[in-house]
Amino acid sequence: MSDCVERQRPVDPPGHRNRYSRWRAGSLAAVYVLMGVHIAHWKVSGRTLAPLELNEVMYTLELGIVTAGFLFMSAVVLATAVFGRFFCSWGCHVLALQDLCAWLLGKLRIRARPIRSRMLLAVPPIAMFYMFAWPQVARALAAKWPGSAAIVGVRPAFDLRIAGDAEGWASFVTTDFWRNLPGPVIAILTLLICGFAIVYFLGSRSFCQYACPYGVVFGLADRIAPGQIVLRGDCTQCGLCTAGCQSGIRVHEEVARFGKVVSSRCLKDLDCVSVCPTQGLSFGFARPSFLKSLLSKKRTRVRYDFSPLEEGLIAVTFVATLLIFRGLYSAVPFLMALGLAGILAFLAVWTRRLLTDPALRLGGAPLKTSGHWTRRGKAFLGGVALLTVFTVHSGFIRYHEVRGEGVLRRLAQPEAGREDLERALLHLGALDRWGLVATPALKPRLAELNLSLERFGEAEGHLRQVLMNHPDLHDARFQLARALLGQQRAGEARAELERVAHSGAHAQRRADAHELLASLRAAAGDREGAISELRAVLAEDGDRVARRLDLADLLVSVGELGEAEGSLRTSLGSQPGSIRAHHNLAVILARTDRVEEAIGHLEEAVRLAPGDPQIRRTLDLLRVERGEPGHVRDDPTGR
């Protein structure tokens, strides 16, 4: 008997608990330190390893681009397949935030009561399928029915390769550390929602249980891992291990039945090991659990917290809010939308209960007692009402975003017309008028649509707002010049074009500006100025054959026949089939007494355009001048 008592006597569990907690806290702190070092290296050197983002796995699965994030996740999955899910509890910064929130709530004497929902348990597998499996399903569908490519959202062909700097969004090293990361506001909101708010409403580590798609992948790898929490000593079935498990696993039942923890939700944070009074639990290697927890005939029956009606309300609210918030304002990321949808689904059920049940509590605080709402209950209803208004407004915005994006894609098709422009302007205009946040691309798109519809005043207004916030945006300044020209304000347009032409804009945009300036100067009778601008066009973009021809015409008009001839010969070198270049070069050659060569170019022009009466007339005139029988016609139509 004394032996039995001795075996059951606690052996300094607080010391063990502190030891493992300190180790895990140090590991998670090291993650944040490494993140800081990573950013510091980028700031100092200007170039660093790409962020190790797990969502970059989607690029590999969709496009075959091997990214740093894909290699990182592959390494984590392989490690999980050997040692179990250590990464989730010892290296995931989101779980660290959830544990921090649970600790802070405990200090405030607020109990983060975990909930159990059938519907929410289905979210991570579905999200995992959408992120990692759907790209391959879509590719298979597109291969079988090519016409379905646009419907199922297939990207360009799969070709496993490593991206270089030309594809900065996927290369191993980058000069833009934030290339695939959200801005600071969205990043902070994501951490607050997925790391703090979701714990208050759904319980400790609820994001891991009800939202995280990566956890599903790690859970599958954990089922084949030999690294497990195993029972090496005695078990008194005291239940302290179950009480200490923050992942909600009934540890004492699993070790009694299997001699180890077989649930794939075990994150190997060693809390159960630290509180075991007999030190019977430890991390070790054993036969992989595979599907034991799922196939066992003595599976523990889980009692869920919601009725079928409430589970239906959770499903409808979750799906609706996920569709509304994902991609809202081109900013809300998928994981943030998942966390927000889970919280709103919970609030929908709690609001229903607050309206129907005689008593209700949240986080230990009473919302309703004896059929009467407390102050907290009224504040809760007020907050839910405001959140509902915001959600409905966001749904209105998201509707116009989706419809607008669809119309913009249609505008890229050759059959698009004015009606499509009007529809795109309708949807984007609604975003501009009613949106709470202006996306960077919205105003330029509105300006472009108004320019296409020749609504130059509206386009000018949008472009001036863009330039007010981004004065160095040269494309917007060029478009502003176009809008001013459409309103016959040539002087103001010229000033804007001068700024673009002599700025740090892309060479092609500078060439565009010089080209418009050449047109303005030619229209004003300033031939020398127009020639100078056209020379600048060709200096910036020498492949513009039409501009070389314009330059040649102006050079002829001011008597610079030699340079005009050179420009035309250069044009023919890059575009031998240019009828205009052959004809104009023939005219210059004729003026400089090189009739034979001129006739040769005109004959080539006639061959290219046999029905052009002007070319035939010029050819006949030169043949008469050379003394051959002519066929000169006074009728310019050639009849």
Q: Which labels suit this protein?
A:
elongated, 31 helices, 9 strands, mainly alpha, Serine Threonine Protein Phosphatase 5, Tetratricopeptide repeat, 3-stranded antiparallel β-sheet
Description:
The protein has 639 residues and is mainly α. The radius of gyration is 36 Å and the shape is elongated. It has a 3-stranded antiparallel β-sheet. Among the domains are: 2-226, no CATH class; 543-639, Tetratricopeptide repeat domain (Serine Threonine Protein Phosphatase 5, Tetratricopeptide repeat, Alpha Horseshoe). It has helices spanning 2-8, 13-45, 57-63, 68-83, 86-90, 93-107, 118-121, 123-144, 149-152, 184-202, 206-210, 213-222, 240-244, 251-258, 271-275, 292-295, 308-325, 334-356, 375-411, 418-434, 442-452, 456-469, 474-486, 490-501, 507-523, 527-540, 545-557, 561-574, 579-591, 595-608, 613-625, and strands spanning 48-49, 65-66, 161-162, 173-174, 227-231, 281-285, 360-362, 365-369, 372-373.
